[in-house]
Amino acid sequence: MDDVVACFEYYADLAEALDGKQRSPISLPMENFKSYVLKEPIGVAGLITAWNYPLLMATWKVAPSLAAGCTAVLKPSELASLTCLELGAICIEVGLPPGVLNIITGLGPEAGAPLSSHPHVDKVAFTGSTETGKRIMTAAAQMVKPVSLELGGKSPLIVFDDVDIDKAVEWAIFGIFLNAGQVCSATSRLLLHEKIAKQFLDRLVAWAKNIKISDPLEKGCRLGSVISEGQYEKIKKFISTARSEGATILYGGARPQHLRRGFFIEPTIITDVSTSMQIWREEVFGPVLCVKEFRTESEAVELANDTHYGLGGAVISNDQERCERISKALHSGIVWINCSQPTLVQAPWGGNKRSGFGRELGEWGLENYLTVKQVTKYCSDEQWGWYQPPSKL
Ligand SMILES: NC(=O)C1=CN([C@@H]2O[C@H](COP(=O)(O)OP(=O)(O)OC[C@H]3O[C@@H](n4cnc5c(N)ncnc54)[C@H](O)[C@@H]3O)[C@@H](O)[C@H]2O)C=CC1
Ligand SMILES: N=C(N)NCCCC(=O)O
């Protein structure tokens, strides 16, 4: 909720600053023309979001689209619509004019698809799976409609042998078990320098054992249930496939013994992973971490980039120059150094490759909903002079 509030406050400030940025002059190499730029709302924005941070993901789109001066139609996930409906109620309460923010609920094919193909929707911003992202892009293409896509990931966390083990372990845990791993940028592939691998994994298991798994409304809960039975079954299938492909379930992999009901899965750590395995290649979207070891920096980078995705990446090392080198080498839209997952409303968020394109948050998030218009004025008193003037007689 703090992030939701911060995001609305941030874009309220950017909305005010936008007026001051209008008519910014373009420097030209001649005097008889003057040009400037207007930034205008793109029109009606269609916003389609997922269930994992239902209100926050909607806010990342609603706040900048309204700040840009657009009207918006929000279609939250059918699995978690209530907080968005509550946002609608708050908008009425605070006097947002009718029609500025519209919220429609329903299933993807019935409510989302018509929004992405509708001729009166001028832009679609989407957060969700890569498969749905492709469908939305295809539908939008028929109208030559711009889209921004924030899709899945299989982000790496690289840990070198010069780190404080417990500090790094905590980031590794936070990077994959936060929100039960249902985070697009989760660092779900851990790359460990071989010199510390054994010690690191021992501590990782010790920390994982210590995570409080419970009803999220219970105080101190750090791992709740996953969203649905479908997601629960899908995660369990990923774990059983990893086992059958020859990986080792080092820790977890099952329902916690103290929780008989609910879609709870233990924090799961998988080792003996090869790069051809499903667990290395595909997004689980659950509390499942896979681990590989590396010897050299270049091997670590190669393994980190061995994915069709390109959302996040992280490196932990005390060698700051190495961290800078790796930040440049990672093929991703976000790099965390000596941490994983902190998300700042001021900084751009989004991915490369099959993680999508376009950036949310920061000033880039506002640009998503603006179109750039050049205004060019001829300011000479002279005749233009391209054609021969006809005789006046
Ligand atoms: N990267 C991310 O942030 C997320 C990734 N996922 C991944 O996607 C998998 C499936 O989860 P879903 O909730 O089914 O994701 P999804 O991508 O199918 O759904 C996201 C949103 O798109 C809508 N949608 C579905 N089909 C549509 C269509 N043809 N046209 C327009 N809108 C459509 C849905 O109603 C929902 O609002 C998860 O298991 C997870 O692996 C899910 C949620 C978020
Ligand atoms: N608030 C944090 N840490 N992350 C936001 C994750 C956004 C996403 O899963 O699409």
UniProtKB/TrEMBL annotation:
GO terms for molecular function: 4-trimethylammoniobutyraldehyde dehydrogenase activity; gamma-guanidinobutyraldehyde dehydrogenase (NAD+) activity. Keywords: NAD, Oxidoreductase. InterPro entries: Ald_DH/histidinol_DH, Ald_DH_C, Ald_DH_CS_CYS, Ald_DH_CS_GLU, Ald_DH_N, Aldehyde_DH_dom. The active site is at E150. Residues 2-375 form the Aldehyde dehydrogenase domain. It comes from the Eukaryota. It catalyses: 4-guanidinobutanal + NAD(+) + H2O = 4-guanidinobutanoate + NADH + 2 H(+); 4-(trimethylamino)butanal + NAD(+) + H2O = 4-(trimethylamino)butanoate + NADH + 2 H(+). Pathway: Amine and polyamine biosynthesis; betaine biosynthesis via choline pathway; betaine from betaine aldehyde: step 1/1. Belongs to the aldehyde dehydrogenase family. PANTHER family: BETAINE ALDEHYDE DEHYDROGENASE (PTHR43860), BETAINE ALDEHYDE DEHYDROGENASE 1 (PTHR43860:SF7). This is Aldehyde dehydrogenase domain-containing protein.
